[in-house]
């Protein structure tokens, strides 16, 4: 005997929410793959200076999102099928998966909040190391480390359209052709510092990750409530 009355409405609401959940998983998977292969980020993350690479903290967040998106798509399909079939076993499994997913998301959110400034700070440090290597070794006519550091700086400058960390460093880099080409004198003297550009780049992306995670958390809460109500209703209806 199937569920009736208000519980039947909850059944179809759960199916709709699960379909939205499945779509949200697809969106998260797509956004995380875009973040992983987005040209600006990929260009910077692929740099290397004397065996040292840019910090991987940002990509850790992205890989977590890719996993979450894939799991959400699977769990969403499981929930849709369980709701339509009114299967107590599938609904119970679905609820358990939601609890685990919600706990993981809360844990990842806490970790992300605690390390929210670490990504930008580590990237700034990597840029500063390249700047120091390119400028402190400038008195040596031919220096392999200096050439590699200049190459790293050029990638930063061309990718982010910035130069140096302040006006003084820009005056050092401009005569050496390490700053982006400017069509006018005004553009040369008003170039943005790379520290500011790094802040913009990663802060925007981290806010995007946070917004997606919050939306998913709200959907998961509703899913947990509806699945538990429907699971109890199916169990009670099977008694009669």
SSE topology sketch:
Blueprint: H1 6-37, H2 39-45, H3 57-85, H4 88-114, H5 118-136, H6 144-160, H7 167-173, H8 185-189, H9 194-237
Helix pairs in contact: 1-3, 1-9, 3-4, 3-9, 4-9, 5-6, 5-9
Task: Please describe what this structure looks like.
The mean pLDDT is 76. This protein has 9 helices and no strands. It starts with 5 loop residues before the first helix and ends with a helix. The protein is elongated and about 80 Å long. Helix 1 (6-37) packs antiparallel against helix 9 and helix 4 (88-114) packs antiparallel against helix 9. The chain folds into 2 domains: 6-115 and 203-237; 120-196, Tetraspanin (Cd81 Antigen, Extracellular Domain, Chain: A), CATH 1.10.1450.10. It is mainly alpha-helical and 240 residues long.
């Amino acid at each position: 005997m199937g569920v009736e009355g208000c519980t039947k409405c909850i059944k179809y609401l759960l199916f709709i929410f699960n379909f939205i959940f499945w779509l949200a998983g697809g969106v998260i998977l797509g956004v995380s793959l875009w973040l992983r292969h987005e040209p600006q980020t990929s260009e910077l993350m692929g740099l290397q200076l004397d065996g040292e690479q840019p910090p991987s903290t940002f990509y850790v967040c992205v890989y977590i999102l890719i996993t979450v998106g894939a799991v959400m798509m699977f769990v969403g399909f499981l929930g849709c099928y369980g709701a339509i079939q009114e299967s107590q076993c599938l609904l119970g499994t679905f609820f358990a998966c939601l609890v685990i997913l919600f706990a993981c998301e809360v844990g990842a959110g806490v970790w992300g909040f605690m390390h929210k400034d670490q990504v930008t700070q580590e990237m700034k440090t990597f840029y500063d190391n390249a700047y120091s290597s390119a400028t402190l070794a400038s008195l040596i006519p031919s220096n392999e480390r200096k050439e590699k550091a200049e190459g790293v700086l050029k990638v930063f400058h061309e990718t982010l359209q910035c130069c140096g960390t302040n006006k003084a460093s820009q005056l050092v880099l401009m005569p050496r052709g390490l700053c982006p080409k400017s069509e006018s004198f005004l553009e040369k003297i008003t170039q943005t510092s790379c520290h500011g550009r790094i802040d913009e780049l990663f802060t925007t992306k981290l806010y995007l990750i946070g917004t997606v995670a919050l939306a998913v958390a709200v959907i998961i809460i509703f899913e947990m409530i509806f699945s538990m109500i429907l699971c109890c209703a199916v169990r009670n209806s099977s008694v009669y």
